[in-house]
Structures are given as structure tokens and as C-alpha cells.
Design brief:
By secondary structure, the protein is an all-alpha fold. It has helices at residues 2-22, 26-47, 67-90, 97-116, 120-138, 144-175, 180-190, 196-209, 218-221, 227-236, 238-253, 258-281, 285-306, 309-340, 356-370, 376-390, 394-419, 433-451, 453-469, and strands at 54-58, 61-65. It has 19 helices and two strands. The protein is globular and about 70 Å long.
């Protein structure tokens, strides 16, 4: 078991420093170390089915391996591998590539480390590594606007993590430990629930990281980063950290109270409405997709906070579906930006004629994020909304259906403006095989997830069995 942690977490973190000295082969090294981590996670998951969570110490640090952490690590590393491969085409003419591949590699390594963390302090350590990496990657181009936006992201997410750290301090005072396994056992044994103050401090940290109301402003501004970076932030790493921490702390470790669930639902419906309406009137291709991410993450928080079987499974499913779909959308938009040097949808049009693969890949991923059957997004959103109805939150269910309609409208508006109509860039073509292969693969994945939903649903069942088993 220790060897698995050293392989899945240690290889990307230690290997990232090899990127700095690899020069001509830095992209190959970065791709290889994350691929090795992915292979390790897949091999362990398929060869050693877990009936219960495993707690272990590795070099004095606490780690937890269970179906939830294996699932999240698989999602992040898979999308991360594809984004790095896409970078071979997108980033090859950029400067400071050693810095880029170093921060991307350690970013993904920190995410995997956070996922397997069995101690709140260790989780916080990896949490802050991702903050530093995202700050540097958002400001990668070193222009004034980019640095300002990178600082905005840093300040807001660091504010959230500071609040979270205070919440962890209170938890330590109440439980005498930051070990998640010990806190969980004490909670079960003594019947102790998390207090209002502890919940709000921890949740605000998660909301800040996932760009939820009232911290949502930093994510659209982060679109100044290179497209592979924005895809990492939205699909693989940064905004997924908040929902994972929510599941790990409030479902696995400490049971969430009903009144806390109501607070989350209110904040999430506000987030979903604001972000989806903003996307409808936005013209920057990256900001449209950024607002979309903010809205879709609110679905996941809602599903998890309801704490019912079908809603939680729908939320976990949407973590994977959204990661694949949103990566495909951002990377498709990246092809358009890379070839045309344009991000305003009002100045684009007719690109289907010269970029047919990009158009098809974008549409496939958009169908999944919209929630159209039989794509994976349909099933995930259906189960979350069903969970709202099941718990008698009828008004919120209707409003979330409305945001799904808004999602369909702004993504179709994006597609029509960029790919249909009068052709604006007749001499711009799809020139990178790596970029096109990646987005087409993501588009196909998005479709296949929905078609072969049953095996994935069984994975969700296995995760929920472990989580639910702790509280009967």
C-alpha cells in the first residue's frame, strides 16, 4: 500500500523537478510522470477492489485510500494527461516552457496528494501548493492584466483557505486531532456533529476554491492564462478541490446537518442563476465557459449537500462528466483562439468549414454539459434534480432546470456565432494533430459515458456504500 502512495503521489511531485532540467524533453517528462501516476491509480483500482477504506502512514504522513479517493484521483489524472498531451501542440512556440510544465506537473501531483490525504493539515499543505501553482500559471504571460488577474485569484482563494485553516483549528480543539479517520470514529462513537461555525469556515474555503458565490469573480478573470491552464483549473484540478473536500469532510468524516444543507442550497442557486445569466450576455469565449463552470459546480455541491443516495451519486457522476466535457469545451475554444488569435464571438463565424473536427468535438462536449440525453450530463443532472424533488425542494428544482435551459442557450449561442454563419477566417485551419486528437477523444468520451452509464453507476454505488456505511 505504501508503494502505491509513493507511486501515485510521489512520482508527479518529485518528477516535476526533473522537468526543470530536462530542457528539450520537458514535455515528454511531464506527460510521462502524470501518465505513470494514472496507470498506478488504475492498476490499484482494478486489481484491488476495496470493501472498506484503508488508512496508512507513509513516511510519517497520514493517507486514506478508498473508492472516493481512487475515483477522484482517476478523474484528475486522466484529464491532466490529456491536457498535457494537448499542450504539445498549443504551447510549443511559447516561452518559459520549463516553468509551464513544472507547475502543471506539480499542480496535478498536489491534487492527487490532497485527494489521498488522511489528515486535515496535510490536505491544507497540498491545498496551498495548488494555490501557488494556479497563481503562477494564470500569470504565465507576465503582462500587467494577467498578473492582476492572477493576484485576484490568489487573494480570494487564499482568503478562503485562511478561513478553512481557522475551521481546522477549531476542529482540532474539539476533537484533539486533525486525522480524518480519528475524527470520524470519535464522531460516530460520541454522536458529535459539526458546529455552525466550523461548518461555515470550512465551507467558505471550499466555495472560494470552487469559485462559488460570493467568491466567483476570480474564475472568469483567470481566462488570461494559456488555454491548457484554464482547462486544468476548470476541469481537472482547482475548482474540483472544493467539491472533493466537501465530500471527504462532510460526507465521509462528519455528517452534515439538515440546516447546513439548506444554506448550501441557497448559496448554490444564487451562484447558478448569476453565472448562467452572465454567460448568456458574455462575448469572450473563455469567460462564457468560465461562467458555465461556476454554474455546473453548483450542481455538484447541491447533490452532495442533499446527502441522499441518488443525489450524491448524481453529483459524483457529474464530477467525472463535467471534467471530460468542460476540458473538451475549453480545449476546443483553445484551438479557435490559437489559430485565429481572437476570443470575441462577435468577430468569429463560419469556422466549421475550416475546423470541422473542432466544431464536432465542441458540440459533443456541449451536449453533455447541457444535459441532453443520452450524454452523461443528462443522467447526472437528472439524478441531482430528482434528489431535490425527493427532498421536497421543488422551487430550487425548477430554478435549476431553468439554469439548464440557460446552459443550452449560451452554449448554442457560442456554437452558432463561432462555427456557423458567415466565414470570418477562411485561411485558418486545424494545424495541430495533438490538439485535434485530444478534443475529439474528449468529445467521444462524453458521448460514451452516457451510453455506457451502467458500469459508472456501479462505481458510484461502491463509493456510496463506503460513505453511507459509516453512518448506517
Amino acid at each position: 500500500m505504501s508503494s502505491f502512495i509513493l507511486t501515485s503521489v510521489g512520482i508527479p511531485i518529485i518528477g516535476s523537478f526533473l522537468v526543470l532540467v530536462s530542457r528539450r524533453y520537458r514535455h515528454i517528462v511531464s506527460f510521462s510522470i502524470i501518465t505513470l501516476s494514472l496507470i498506478s491509480i488504475m492498476y490499484f483500482a482494478f486489481s484491488s477492489p476495496l470493501k472498506e477504506a484503508l488508512y496508512l502512514k507513509v513516511i510519517g504522513l497520514d493517507f486514506i485510500i478508498d473508492n472516493l479517493s481512487l475515483f477522484m484521483a482517476f478523474c484528475s489524472s486522466l484529464v491532466g494527461v490529456l491536457i498535457i498531451y494537448y499542450s504539445f501542440g498549443y504551447m510549443k512556440e511559447k516561452k518559459h516552457l520549463g516553468e509551464y510544465y513544472f507547475f502543471v506537473s506539480i499542480f496535478l501531483g498536489a491534487m492527487i496528494g490532497l485527494i489521498f490525504s488522511g489528515n486535515l493539515l496535510l490536505m491544507y499543505f497540498f491545498w496551498e501548493i495548488t494555490t501557488i501553482c494556479s497563481w503562477r500559471l494564470i500569470g504565465f504571460y507576465r503582462k500587467d492584466e494577467h498578473l492582476i488577474n492572477a493576484n485576484k485569484a490568489f487573494y480570494l482563494t487564499f482568503l478562503g483557505s485562511g478561513l478553512m485553516l481557522v475551521g481546522m483549528e477549531i476542529l482540532y480543539h474539539n476533537y484533539g486531532s486533525l486525522n480524518l479517520y480519528e475524527i470520524r470514529n470519535l464522531s460516530i462513537k460520541n454522536g458529535i456533529n459539526i458546529s455552525e461555525l466550523e461548518f461555515m469556515l470550512l465551507f467558505l474555503g471550499m466555495a472560494a476554491k470552487s469559485a462559488q458565490f460570493p467568491f466567483q469573480v476570480w474564475l472568469p478573470a483567470a481566462g488570461v492564462a494559456p488555454t491548457p491552464v484554464t482547462a486544468l483549473l476548470h476541469a481537472a484540478v482547482l475548482v474540483k478541490i472544493g467539491v472533493y473536500a466537501f465530500a471527504r469532510i462532510f460526507l465521509w468524516t462528519l455528517p452534515i446537518k439538515v440546516q447546513f444543507s439548506e444554506v448550501v442550497l441557497i448559496l448554490m442557486i444564487i451562484t447558478a442563476l448569476i453565472s448562467s445569466l452572465s454567460a448568456l450576455f458574455e462575448n469572450d469565449i473563455k469567460k462564457i465557459l468560465a461562467y458555465s463552470t461556476i454554474c455546473q459546480i453548483s450542481y455538484i455541491f447541491m447533490g452532495l449537500s442533499l446527502n441522499t443516495s441518488i443525489a450524491v451519486k448524481g453529483a459524483l457522476l457529474y464530477i467525472f462528466v463535467h471534467g471530460i466535457g468542460k476540458a473538451g469545451l475549453f480545449l476546443s475554444a483553445g484551438v479557435v483562439e490559437h489559430e485565429t488569435n481572437e476570443r470575441d464571438i462577435r468577430k468569429l463565424g463560419g469556422l466549421y468549414k475550416t475546423m470541422p473536427f473542432t466544431a464536432i468535438a465542441f458540440l459533443l462536449c456541449a451536449f453533455s454539459i447541457m444535459g441532453l440525453p443520452p450524454f452523461g450530463g443528462f443522467w447526472a443532472k437528472f439524478f441531482i434534480i430528482f434528489g431535490l424533488i425527493e427532498t421536497h425542494h421543488y422551487t430550487i428544482a425548477i430554478l435549476m432546470i431553468l439554469t439548464a435551459v440557460f446552459t443550452m442557450l449560451y452554449l448554442l449561442r457560442f456554437f452558432n456565432r463561432v462555427f456557423m454563419g458567415r466565414q470570418t477566417h477562411p485561411n485558418k485551419f486545424e494545424n495541430s494533430r495533438e490538439m485535434i486528437f485530444t478534443i475529439v477523444l474528449l468529445g467521444v468520451f462524453g458521448f460514451l459515458i452516457g451510453v455506457f452509464i451502467k458500469p459508472l453507476w456501479e462505481v458510484m454505488d461502491n463509493i456510496l456504500t463506503q460513505i453511507g456505511g459509516y453512518y448506517g
